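Form 7-S
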Amino acid sequence: MNRLTIQTEESTERIDALLARAIAGLTRSAAQRLLEQGAVTKNGLPVKKSYQTAPGDVFEVTLPDVAEPMLAAQDIPLDVIYEDEDLIVVNKPRGMVVHPAPGHADSTLVNALLHHCGDSLSGVGGERRPGIVHRIDKDTSGLIIAAKNDFAHLALSSQLADHTLARTYEAVVHGAFREDSGTVDAPIGRSPADRKRMAVTEKNARRAVTHWEVLARYSGFTHIRCRLETGRTHQIRVHMAHIGHPLLGDMVYGRRKAEKGLEGQCLHARSLRLIHPRTGETMELTCPLPDYFTDVLARLGPQI
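Output:
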């Protein structure tokens, strides 16, 4: 068993939402199961699923030992950027789903990690997401971290929460920017019009901050770098669409047709900066732009 202490911030929210946000890889339904099992306490007493947190609340969470995963280990090649006894960083290819979900039962990053790492994956995320600290979308390529034990997982989750784990992306977006850099500070939540999409909204939303800078300008398009200060679902895609610069190829938040030979957003997780959970060393990892991305840049023509 692993014990974790969580203290609320100044805002209020349902306890299951807090747990899902504070513990990377933990779904809201898994958080509700922990609550039903009495694994979440406040002042020594079990907390109900309906509990509305208050600023300064302190909760003790008992995480169960990981059960034997029911997922199949699959011999899928991995582009490993870094690996040690605590964590592994992989350059995920575009088109690979991170963990099994409806419609994607196998051939995911988790299936590949189970083959590569064997039993050495953390159990905090549950049986369906062993090792997974954070996610990137199916059609987003680039760096993603998996933890090999719960100690590393909880430490990395803490870095995600306090923004000491820095993630930088590159993207191609529609339109031209007047400025060379800027910041989008706009809350993101479920779209009131479509629950399958995210949107900039004040309703049931959380603060989201994206810093961007121009790398190159083309006729009708811009190559940008984005640094995430927060990590909301689809954050870069939603923020860029919100300011009138949807990502090239984004069929959900952008133009719903294939362009420049690309279906799916042109977005690559280029670099990571983190503090190693065991050594305390600051690590900076990077990976090159993939072929699909450089092919798109070539199709855009000369820089202007």
